[in-house]
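Can you give me the bound-state structure? Components:
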Amino acid sequence: MGLLFAMAILLLGAMAVLALSRPDRNVSWLGAGSVVIASVLGCVPVIQVLSGGSIEAVRVPWPVPYGEFFLVLDPLAAWFLFPTLLLSALSAIYGVGYLRVWQGRRSLGPVWFFYCVLVLGMMLVLLARNAVLFLFAWELMAVASFFLVTFEYEREAVREAGWIYFVATHLGTAFLLVFFLLTARETGSMDFTVWAEKGIQTRGLADILFLLAIVGFGTKAGFMPFHVWLPEAHPAAPSHVSALMSGVMIKTGIYGLLRSLTFLGLPPLWWGWLLIGIGLTSGVLGVLFALAQHDLKRLLAYHSVENIGIIALGIGVGLLGVSTGSPVLMVVGFGGGLLHVLNHALFKGLLFFGAGAVLQGTGTHEIDHLGGLLKRMPWTAATFLIGAVAISGLPPLNGFVSEFLIFLGAFQGGATLGAAGAVPLLALIAGLALIGGLAAACFTKAFGVVFLGEPRTEHASHTHETGWAMRLPMLLLAAGCALIGLFAPFVVGALQAVLENTTGLRREVVRVNLAAAAGPLALVVIGTVAFLLLLVALFLLRRGLLAGRRVEQGVTWGCGYVQPTARMQYTASSFVQPVTTLFRWLLGTHRRLQRPEGIMPANASLTTETPDLCHGNLYRPGFLKVNWGLSQLRRLQRGPVQLYVLYIAVTLIVLLAWKFR
Amino acid sequence: MNNTNIILVLVVLTNLKLLGSSRLGASIRVVAMQGVVLGLLPILAHTNELSVRFAVLAAGTIALKGIVFPWFLFRAVWEAEVTREVEPYVGYVTSLLAGVLILAVSFWMCERLPMPETLASSWLAPVAFFSIFAGLFLIVSRKRAVSQVLGFLVLENGVYAFGVGLAPHTSLLVEAGVLLDVFVAVFVMGITIFHINREFDHIETNRLNTLKD
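Here's the bound-state model for the whole set.
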């Protein structure tokens, strides 16, 4: 019921901001206010269901053919709704501050309208149990986010990014349409509950449906190689929208995949292997491409691909568990994947907020134009650092917890599945470790170049800390990251309801397996807390030793030079050069180098650019071919009206003749 | 042979005459005559249930197709056309032969199509089809814009004949709607022809190709 109220408030809020179309500062508060109220209202039933409350359902007739307004709040939907509602509310508050610069220059009514519609669409996607309603909500979400991405439509690059997103998301929906039609034909119903009860019994059809779901939902989620829209759309969108899209909207793809797995019956072994393969590809390539980027938001977008890969790894391990009937793998695999959904929403939202604060303060998201922001934006820097540590999967924070569960699953599986299963799972362990290491390297670069050192350009030197509307959401998310990390053993227990619902295991089995996973986590947490206490002790000791002495502050990277310059610092590309050179065959980085010549070299320069692998080699040529094929049809367009009427006449006659066959 | 069939024969003859005639003025007059003849069709086809409804329909049809449209088209010819010839892509004799062929095909086809029982005459469907195809043929094979309007009218006459033959089943509203559509279409075409002529000093569609895209 609370969720219905929440949706009604969102709808009212959307209408209200549209009615107040004058460039008015109240619009932001009205839009954000309705989202926050809706989120608070919606969170109540979500938390009830997650803590083991009864499942709620609403059924209302809907005059669309085959449609029914059928909503169910079960633990799986609730698990995805929680981060959605949380991040929607925080992004809305952040957006009030972020959009303030546009006040007076642009009517903000449409932005808030589409923001409310996007949140509404995501809620409906997660709750809908009727195929037509689901697709309707899916499109609502896609269209609303398209309009949000193209907020700065005056810029050519933004428009192009918008189109790439639009085309990609609709190609994905096309696969989903086939998926739903085939399932509906097989089961004779449009009801998800009926689909889940009957299940697809034909083996071949189930395989085809699984592949369709991988492509359809994977396009939204950002599986490699369907990820092309992410690195385009996230940098183009306003930062609070990037945070929402990257943090929770792409997770609806993961949700859709998990939901469709409930229709497809018992999975064969290769489904799990396929997901693990996709997860490794997305994870490793995602982080590698992130490493090579110079644009802060583009870098974060590639990290979304990486984290979706990690989630896919978790689900893959879980599916292996289902196929082999191993409750440990199911609980730990699905648990790790699902927990990473929540964790990624928290730290990726936080990081995009940080990137937005940097963008608003400096006017650029070119990493190489920044530097030294730690002194100028201490709050943003501190919270960004927490997000960076979390996304790298380092122990005191939440990213570690979910990756740890997946590691645990892989080790368990390696021990129980025998030699054939052990080798791919060892690859998973190695891959996940590589992803973690490269992510740490990437965020050392991002944090180091942006926040440490000295300002590289004017952009970075004249900047200021953000206002409270933007600072508060960042602080809350950072606190969330730390709390989940520090209370990991208890947080893992919160997966109880959703895992029972997803795996169909008995309550006791889930509890025992979760407790088994919580044990080692508790040790890690105790260890990290001890480490943190040691740090505090060392800090106090240092302060004690320095007390009463003169402490001098020098220029960062001063290094004893008489006249240091900001250009002597590491740049983003020089920092990651060892890694990018190692993977040059894969990254295809374009380098333009003008070597310094002579004893007193005057001009020298190095530019590197890493375009997307799939975008340049797969999609661009493919779409050009399609375009060429379609342009052949223009031969039909000659000009004379008579000819066009002749086409019509011939078509009619052919249709008649076909009737007489 | 009853009244309906006489009218249908007249429709066939006017169509053939149209395919073979070379003068624009004559063509307009023939289409006007076809319109008047078709206007009588509802009254003659449904003699046993003569009503105000059919009378109104007949009067409207005759007024529009017999008087208003020809007047429009004559005006367009006087104001826009330099020569008064049809200027075909396909010659007159060939057009006539094609017309006969189309007639044969229409009859053959309607033998095999499932038809409603209540048609006023067994000839109605083939003649309607013949009119539709002849209209399409006129549009495709003539250069002049006015000829194409005429072809469109003939095509519409075919649809109308079929509709009236089924009158007890279709409502007056539908027929009135069709008439209104055609009226608007001819009106727009007339204005367009006039404007194209003013802009380009001619209305030969084969010389308007450069406007494509």
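A couple of observations. Residues 52-80 of chain B form the longest helix (29 residues). The mean pLDDT of chain B is 78.
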